[in-house]
Give the backbone structure.
Amino acid sequence: MSSGPGAPGSPGAPGAPGGPGISGGPGAGPATAEQGPPPEEIRAIPVRHPGRWVAAAVVLVLAAMLVHTLVANPRFEWGVIGNYFLSSRVLEGLGITLLLTVVAMFIGIVLGVLLAVMRLSSNPLLSGASWAYIWLFRGTPVLVQLLFWFNLAALYPRISVGVPFGPSFAEFNANDLISGIGAAILGLGLNEGAYMSEIVRAGILSVDHGQSEAAQALGMRRALTMRRIILPQAMRVIIPPTGNETISMLKTSSLASVITVTELLYAVQLIYSVNFQTIPLLIVASLWYLIVTSLLTIGQYYIERHYARGSARQLPPTPWQRVRRLLFTVHAAPPGPPAQLPAGPSR
Amino acid sequence: MSGPPGTPGRPPAADGAAVPGDPGGPMVATEGLHKSFGRLHVLRGIDLTVARQEVMCVIGPSGSGKSTLLRCINHLEQINAGRLWVDGELVGYRQQGGKLYELRDKEICAKRAEIGMVFQQFNLFPHMTALENVIEAPVRVRGQGRPKATEQARELLYRVGLQDKADAYPKQLSGGQQQRVAIARALAMQPKLMLFDEPTSALDPELVGDVLAVMRDLAASGMTMIVVTHEMGFAREAGDSLVFMDEGVIVEAGRPREILVSPQHERTRSFLAKVL
């Protein structure tokens, strides 16, 4: 790739020897050649901030108290926590929690995109149906919805597949069809769909109208425009709240404990109902929730970067790239001076 | 499909009837074209003929309906009354047995694909590089193979002077460069007609020249072009005809030099006095 005409002579390029150019090599541009001696840096007595010192001291004392109580209070039972942290029952519970989160979020996202597109449709029946769905599922507590799905058999003991108002091909016992996990996935996923649809709708609306017009003018049809042009750009707006929703879902899935799903919380509840180590086991569960949340946060960072393509001239380096750069350039020549301000007239 | 000369639903042409694809007929023709947005009556009866390979410039004060006219021509807006033909075919409708049938989305898109459009705000796809912008429609709409489309796109980028910016994202390009990519993107569909909607109005003055140079080359290559513009110099040098619009009607039309030098109409005179 040849550099375009008039490419700047990259002042301060790595590898420029001799420090700030006093002599100015033959290749140096006229602006860098006449730098003269580096300007004298300002030395002034900084403003004091006593308030900051007081606040810092308060925070430090509180932190020390926290560490002390964690270590000194024997009732935390760190030994018990260690024993159960990787126990198979806890890990199985964690697995079910992850399963619930992933599947419910998947349903929620697919449903959310569908509902958002319906909501933005010019067909009043479609947008009305989407509105009604969101109204119903956002307007009732998710705990109630979970209990409702779990007790669906009370309303519809038998569920059949067939022609509406016509013959049925197959019939199922509702209790067999919708287990505890099934009810949890249905309840969490359908509820999530309502929230995700608003997030997706906001993302779609955030894309400039000129984009769909340009796509139309190229002969692209609506579905293609949505898939190739609108949604990829809407992702920048959709991802952060979706990450939020995923983290929220991870924790909301603990509600499934009320419908006998042995996810993480119910798994530790079952353990402490026998050995009465309530607090240590709740800490075990909390630590796992924190670990998974941290991993999700990192994942979200990289997904956001992926969809930020083209949104800035240059993406900032990732923390990992920064660490590597720091490690590998520590012995290299110091970089050139930052963009020089015009030196004032020397007195 | 060819009807007898003078069939209603065919564009009226001075030199006989136009048949779809007929090289003698006009590229664009309108007859009593009206367009309103709610109560706002934007186009109030436009009669216009653009011959093949003609470069028509449209000038006029803002709100005079210039952009709306362009948008009607590739059916981004639906007209309310009158008739509009592109290349001898009605835009947005099919006439059968004296009745008009609305075209399906698919058919409208197929016709739009043959008309290139360049927007004031460029409207490049920001999540795609310049090259990806140019190959998007040929690959996704025409089903062209990616290697062939890429080769063609590189040629087009070369033609607009941006061969070394193929992998740059729109944000990394200046306004003038973005607009030239947008022109390349439109040309990639090998359109028979190019519409320019104030292509240089959003550019810094020093960047206007590059874009106009590309448009001049395009005009010289025989492309049929309708250019809504405020660049009177371009209209004078590259335009075959000039149309002055005001309040939804064509006030004056003719050769660019004649209109710019000696406008016949008072409104044209006062407009030109302000912009020249």
